[in-house]
Amino acid sequence: MDIVKEVLDKQAKEAEKYKPINVVKHEEVKIDAGRLMISDPNIFSEEIKENTEAYLSNLTRDNVQLLVNSIWELPTERLDEHIVVKLPKPSFALPRARKLPVPRAPTKWEQFAKEKGIVKRKKDKKVYDEELGKWVPTYGYQKYKAEREKDWVLEVPQNLDPMTDMFQKKKDLKNEKIAKNEISRMKNIARAQKVDMPRVGFVSEESASAKDLLVAATIAKASTASVGKFQASLPKEKTARGIGVKELIPGAQKRKRPINNAMEKSEQIEVVDKLLKKRPKIDVEKAVQIQKREDREEREKKPVEKKKKGGSKSKHAKKFTKKPKSGMGRAGNKKPAGRKRR
Known about the structure:
Blueprint: H1 2-17, E1 30-32, E2 37-39, H2 47-50, H3 52-72, E3 76-78, E4 83-85, H4 108-116, E5 126-129, E6 134-137, H5 141-150, H6 166-192, H7 210-221, H8 245-248, H9 261-277, H10 284-301
Antiparallel strand pairs: 1-2, 3-4, 5-6
């Protein structure tokens, strides 16, 4: 009997290791197989106070078992001797900590290539050089070594000083190209992020146009402490014009002469005098025409009085007659015509 009891106890202990796959919950859990996520709405029991770790481990095991059961309910297929399950679309919307990534804005060259239909061709890693008679890489330090081996001597042009170091000049031009590419890269980034970026000048006097040189000379002239006020002009010198040139000149918008108390007072008095002496301009002909028109309108509005025929005269009317001249009265008073005697 003792042997049978030991065997049963041993089997019971082994059975405790393998818990059943069927889990019963008071409330149905929500399973999202697409995200491999399970949400348990059941309330914790009082057992959590007695043994917290054991309770949580058992609860986790039961929920994982439910999730695995739901996965095995999905259609399966065999791939390379392995059973594969195709997960459905997720049904639970997870919140994002950050906004969705925006596609990168195209650069100027990419826009131009798209408009013209230019397709980027993949460059070969190595190109055969006929002068060296070997394969040379298209980039990297091996290409630099090949160029030094190839250009071991450089010819000085006739328009330059015979003592010009052409190797140093070639190095400077390469550095300028690198700087120009870096400026273009920064401009593309600023354009994509919609950041206002100040304009820059040219890289060198050799690669600059006449307009760039004119803008640079205007900026250099206005870069003094007096903002170019006392700088002498060159013969036949032109001033740079165009959009954005004034913004490049330092202090062009804030160019003001220093003002002291006396100057400020005189300027204010001058402004007041102009305001007081200012008289409105009068157009005499226009004023006369307006007055005539107003008089004519008044006459038209006033009713015309008609005179009565044979009407009695007013009592207070006075009769005015001309005073007779001397010798021109009645006929009896007339003097005889003849020669006057003295």
